[in-house]
Every structure is written in C-alpha cells, then in structure tokens.
Amino acid sequence: MSFTLTGIARHEEIIKKSRFLALAAPVTSAEEAMAFLAAHHVPEATHNCWAYRIGQEYRFNDDGEPGGTAGRPILQAIEGQQCDRVAVLVIRWFGGIKLGSGGLVRAYGGVAAQCLRLADKVEIVEEALLDCACPFSEVALLQSRFASHGVRVVEEAFDAEGANWVLAVPKEQAAQVAAMIIDITRGRARCSAQPPSPHGPSPCQAP
Hints:
By secondary structure, this protein is of the alpha+beta class. It has helices at 30-40, 71-80, 100-118, 136-146, 174-184, and strands spanning 3-5, 9-15, 18-26, 47-54, 57-61, 86-93, 121-123, 127-135, 152-158, 162-170, 190-193. Helices cover 30% and strands 35% of the residues. A 5-stranded antiparallel β-sheet has the order 2-3-6-4-5, sandwiched between helices. Strands 9-10-8-11 form a 4-stranded antiparallel β-sheet.
C-alpha cells in the first residue's frame, strides 16, 4: 500500500539556528516533479535540496551539501512514509552553526518525513489499461457506466465506426470491467488489456 498527497504540504523547523522549510507535492511524471521544484526554488537560500519518487523512477539532489546528507535522506523519508508519486523540496537557510554529516542527514530526513507525515494523503489504487472500441450506438450507454465501475478515460478518439478508448481501471477489476463492456453492448464493443510497460529502477543523483 502506498500513498500520494492531495495537494501541496509544507513544514518548517529551526535546527541549530538554520531554518529548514519542506515543501511536498503530488506528481505524476518527472517533468511535473521538476516543474514543481523549479517553481519553488529559492535562489537566495543556502541550499535547495530535493528528491522525488514516481513508481520505480527516483532522483535526488544535495545542492551543495556533503554527498549523501540531503537528497538521499529526503528520498528515504518519502519511502519511509510509504509515499509514491511525490516530490519533496527542503530549503535551508544556514544559521551559522555547522550540523555535521549526521546532523544534516537527521535534519533533512526529519523535516521531509514530518512534512509528509502531516500532509493530507490518499491511497494509490493501481490501475490497468484497457483498449476499447465501441460503435456509436453504444457510446452513451458505456459512458453512463464508467463512473460506477471506477473507469477513467485516458485517451479518446473517434473514427467512422465509433469511439476508441484507452481506459484506466482498478487493476483488480480489469477483467470484470472488460466483461461488463462486452456484455452490456451484446458483443458489439471490443475490449482487451494492454500489456504492462516494464519500468526498471532508475536511480539518479542530479548534478
């Protein structure tokens, strides 16, 4: 079981005179994560350290702090709070007292973890994709059933015969939904599962 956030969360702490501000947001792609981080980057701060995880893809950045003392602890906080599809930025304003490597790890990881702990979260429901072709005569009927079966239209296109959809459905109900589509259209619609796209681990320490 994993969770994402319902919106942007923030948490601030003063640790040995340094100010740490954590900002966390739900993201669905690396591009969205980087856009969030860029939008909230504070140029006048001492460090802007961050991490994100989206499924098996993750990335982190120490932004000038000693290697392994900022970005990776933030990533570990994301994992420790059972979060996914989340980006976390921790901004530091140096207060004049050095924390040492262990202190930095505790500070960055702790502030990130507390931000996520306090954030409003929602459970991530794993989805499967279905390819569906439906004649025009059945489009309205099927559309009226989508919401009650947790069906989300990812892509929609029309041709001379009808609608072509890519549908996202709760993974555990994919076979049931496909059967429902074929059944209520009396076989006039076609529906099949898309093969899953394998995504191997993609660790990256940003430059």
